[in-house]
Amino acid sequence: MEDPKKLEEGFRDGNENEEEGKNILPDTAGEQLVAKQKSKRVATLDAFRGLTIVLMILVDDAGGAYPRIDHSPWNGCTLADFVMPFFLFIVGVAIALALKRIPKVSSSVKKIILRTLKLLFWGILLQGGYSHAPDVLSYGVDMKKIRWFGILQRIALVYMFVALIETFTTKLRPTTIRTAFFSIFTAYKWQWIGGFVSFVIYMVTTFSLYVPDWSFVVHNDDHSSERYTVKCGMRGHLGPACNAVGYVDRQVWGINHLYTQPVWSRLKACTFSSPASGPLREDAPTWCRAPFEPEGLLSSISAILSGTIGIHYGHVLIHFKGHAERLKHWVSMGLVLIIVALTLHFTDAIPINKQLYSFSYVCFSAGAAGIVFSAFYILIDVWGLRTPFLFLEWIGMNAMLVFVLAAQGIFAGFINGWFYENQENNLVNWIQDHVFNDVWKSERVGTILYVIFAEIVFWAVVSGILHRFRIYWKL
Length: 475
Fold this sequence. Notes:
Layout: H1 4-10, H2 43-62, H3 83-98, H4 105-127, H5 151-168, H6 183-187, H7 189-208, E1 210-211, E2 214-219, E3 225-230, E4 234-235, H8 244-252, H9 297-319, H10 323-346, H11 359-382, H12 390-397, H13 399-407, H14 410-416, E5 419-420, E6 422-426, H15 427-440, H16 443-468
Antiparallel strand pairs: 1-4, 2-3, 5-6
Helix pairs in contact: 2-3, 2-11, 2-12, 2-13, 2-16, 3-5, 3-9, 4-5, 5-7, 5-9, 7-9, 9-11, 10-11, 12-16, 15-16
């Protein structure tokens, strides 16, 4: 069993034998300790990061066959809806542990800004529309339609905000914490004040901003176009059509720069195939055809609170040395958050909604992250059951590589580029059809088995080999 002090020292990113780790997704915060020294990785954080990457691959590539695990069309929470807040939770934990020593504030600020810009660049490149992998063998994006926000851009915003607060309050940090339960909260009040400010901005804007009628144009395959109008003229609406989250994005980014395939098109009001994707109903509301940004600006401000909760878990790890003390804080906070979320949701006060990143969703997903993180900590670092989770550790150590090549389909797109006679005759499709679908006589079963073995297991093995040779993708 690891010594608690070593566990505390080890919660940072990077290679085991490097003084500055830079493994980025989603450990964007924990890569660069200013104090240069060798450190030992802690399995819990890597395994939890690896689990989140695995969930992303699973729901992205098997969600079409199993819509119940795909993103909830609107209110509610499915397996896919835990991925983003888990990322942000990890970012927060990593920030606390990476920035616990800051000899020079200006140097840390420069590194934070540089890493933020790198994340923004990769986010636009991967999700802005430039890459069409893996299904379409072309690249390029019309700048009039480029998508400005996405997963990495949201992580960048949360990382920058939370890390800068942690950096600028370095001289206000306590060296010891009193045993009182709430002392950890008061000791890091500036971090919580930052989270509260983001909460206030989100809540005030969501419930007070007037949303007028708006229109959009749909371009059909036959090169014709149709204009639709959505009637609003209201405040505080939390439905798909007239919420403030979408209105802010339409005003800031422009409607042509938003995500064009929002999950709300799977609602019963839009399609008889709900909760799966399907053709729109003839009587479907006009907004069923409209774009919507699930990683928008206002919802990303709300997401800062996910990072704030994560950094609290990191602060607990730093200041409380015993396993029991840490787990008492982590589990109790996770349970309280879940209870608050369920109360808000089932009283219809604030529904759990990933697309809006509602306050109840923040609480529910962060509480779940805290419980899962605590469970991993017990299994791996307290009980020492590390071997069953090694594949998650390996993936977590090379999270950025697996995210780009697997979750974003870059590797599959490369393989698809080597086809015979036509683009459909490629190795990826052949494996899916003949090794999985035909053998099991079911496309649904074949899809889930393909994702498990040809993607998750494959990338676990690749990550393990890369770890064996100390090869990591650093940003």
